[in-house]
Amino acid sequence: MTFVRTTIDLLPQQTLGSGHALSVLRFGPESAERKIHLQAALHADEMPGALMLHELARRLAELDAADRLRWQIQLVPLANPIGLGQYVSGYYPIGRFHLPSLENFNRGFPDVTPLIVERAKDRLSADETSNVHGIRALMREALAAKQPRTEIEALRLTLLQLAFDADWVLDLHCDGESVPHLYTGTDLWPDFEPLARLIGSQANLLAWHSGCTPFDEALSRPWFELRTQLAGTFPVPLACRAATIELRGQSDVAYDVSQGDSDAMIAFMTIIGAIQGPVPKPPLLLYPATPLEACELIIAPRSGVIVHRASVGSSLRAGEGVSDIVDPVNGKTATLQTRHGGLLFARSRNRFAHAGAEVAKIAGAVAHRTGQLLSM
User: Fold this and answer.
1) Is the pTM of this model over 0.85?
2) How is domain 292-363 classified at the architecture level of CATH?
């Protein structure tokens, strides 16, 4: 058993004299055939996951010393050193977007599928396990061949190289103000349902194509695409089960909360076999899984003060009021209503909206959206 801390320098640098590095914590046997990757703060102003991984690292060290880790467990507690340094006036963190390019840090990850699908046909066989190793070798080659031009490209590439060969990947985020919720590929829901139960997830949003290739999708969707394209020719399992876990809101950073989330993660890793111990029984699911295409975004039609009418976790009927936009200059108030109804799982922590601002998110049951399904 072993614990290893590794530092990875990100190159290229955006400007002369600047540089960033990732810290990676690894627990469990180096010879383990299976691996789970957890990372936090890819949006660098989202700290609930970082604190949870701090607590989880302490727990894993104890389990490692007790020889109870069966898999290699890899943690990246602060997955975005670039965004961590983006402060305006020393106070306002800008961790969601890369300031030089204005790109969202969790969008636009490279898709390796087109690079490997044709080559995979020459390396695969009727043996599913052998195919997993062959596809991962092709992914390693495809990622190694990429030449990042900017620091954000280097960050995305490095994170993929750390996680592409993991059996399970959990990308920990949070929303502005929200209840726990998760995003994953449609066919992966049975695998992640126990985790949803354990963390008390109140919205579970499923899609293979979000329209913008976030980190988890860049890792799990190639297996879905290869399985679809090679159906009837070679057996290809969904060998990388990846999900984005939203641990409530940005202000929900507290020791008792992170300890509870760490307990849930230990329980989940015991269920899937990464940790040796009695297998716990998850609690009841709080809300059923729904299509990401059914997620309704409540958008401000004009600027004004935001006054929320409904709290996160509320179930709303179609036509019910979600928030008000108040114009204190002309005295007018616009009430934003949900068209489809569902569970209000997240809302803006800002209290002033510009025209077109996203105010809230509602998990509905009936798909009604296409294209880019995630927030900017």
Assistant:
1) yes
2) Beta Barrel (2.40)
